[in-house]
Amino acid sequence: MTPGLEEVPCLLMRGGTSKGAYFLADDLPGRPAPRDELLLRIMGSPDERQIDGLGGAHPLTSKVAVVSPSTDPRADVDYLFLQVAVERPEVSARQNCGNLLAGVGPFAVERGLVPAEEPETSVRIRMVNTGDYATATFPTPGGRVRYTGNAEISGVPGTAAPVVIEFPPSAHPLLPTGSVRDVIDGVPVTCVDNGMPTVLVAAGSLEVTGYETPRELEADVALADRLRAIRLAAGRLMGLGDVADTTVPKPTLLAPPRSGGAVTTRTFIPVRCHTSIGVLGAASVAAGLRIEGSVGAEIAVLDSGSDRIRIEHPTGFLDIESSLGRTADGLPSARRTAVVRTARKIFDGTVFPRSAETAPMSPHPLGDQR
After folding, report:
1. Residue 363: predicted pLDDT
2. Quick one: which H or E segment has residue 102?
3. CB–CB of 132/170 below 8 Å?
4. Positive or negative: CA dihedral 291, 293, 298, 299
5. DSSP line for 41-53
6. Among candidates 294, 311, 307, which has minimal Cα distance to 175?
7. Which element (helix H / strand E) includes 267?
8. What's the pTM?
9. Is 260 left (phi over 0), alpha (psi -120 to 50) or beta?
């Protein structure tokens, strides 16, 4: 495809509690700069309403999945996640998205990258952003993806077919700083990475309850300043460098559960407060709760006889299977992580980008894949 092409095949899908545009890599420019410039015009950024594009005026609805056949023998397809900023001309490839991941397998079957099997299909996925892997299994009766079903996830109305996503242990250390606890600006934190770099903080240590609504937390200027300072320092401790212009690590406030779960969460992405919680963020939270001596371990209510952890968030809960092992050095490591998500095809067709001549600004992408 050439950058000047003014129509692009696109499949718009809800994946988990996010919504995004899914593309075949061959349908986009091969080089990051023209690709990102095109995606800004497709999504309608920069504009707080994204009125002239596909974006939904929120980070959770301004996402892109780029999928291609994988040359890795451990995977069927490659999945590159791109976060398109809403109000800024920026496209970031520096984090992953476990919600859009739920739609990658169905998309691969829809586009003929993976043949459908009976009665269900498993698609092995390499997540290009991090180099991690996942396997998504979903129903394909009669050789077609079935989107209807009885699976229900918080934050999404109605029910849909289940997409079971299993993550093998990551090659990244579960504790990137090498410590179960660190202290930043006098606040105890646990920095954990089980697919998403995350900073666990007890809500009470920041003088909030952790039960506030996302809007209330976003309006707290003092909290925002403290979270920003903690995130910047944690990024350096976790080996991520200067994270001022990136979306990771993600601070997550923890409070005791209120509705029978293990813990209550409020996650920042990184400025806006998530209306639920991301899949990979939840995977990191769940693993962090199981680490003895962590910030989360003293707050969470865990069932010692089960791998399942119910993580409460502003619009409900997310159940995740999580168990830990030990490295040869005796450090905690993720052993098994699995989650049930749902996905739905919203439309499949052609998107017409905003004209390059009328685009307000040139992009300054956050990603480092120039």
Report:
1. 46
2. helix 98-110
3. yes
4. negative
5. HHHT-S-TT-TTS
6. 294
7. strand 263-267
8. 0.79
9. left
Amino acid (1-letter code) at residue 314: P
> Which tokens go with 262?
């293990």
What value does the mean pLDDT take over residues 279-291?
A: 95
Residue ranges in 31-181 assigned as alpha helix (H)? 32-43, 98-110
Average pLDDT (124-150) is 96
Kindly state the tokens that stand for 228.
């920003």
What is the mean predicted confidence (pLDDT) over 122-128?
A: 98
Tokens representing 241 are 């460098």
- Are the C-beta atoms of residues 299 and 202 closer than 8 Å to each other? yes
Report the percent of the chain where pLDDT is more than 70.
95
Decide if pLDDT at 361 tops 60: no
pLDDT tens digits for range 44-88: 999 999 999 999 999 999 999 999 999 999 999 999 999 999 999
Compute and round to an integer the Cα radius of gyration of the chain.
20
- How far, in Å, CA of 274 to CA of 342, rounded? 18
Residues β-bridged to residue 163: 341
> How far are the Cα atoms of 130, 165, 194, 219, 338 from residue 134, in angstroms, in the given order?
11, 7, 12, 36, 9
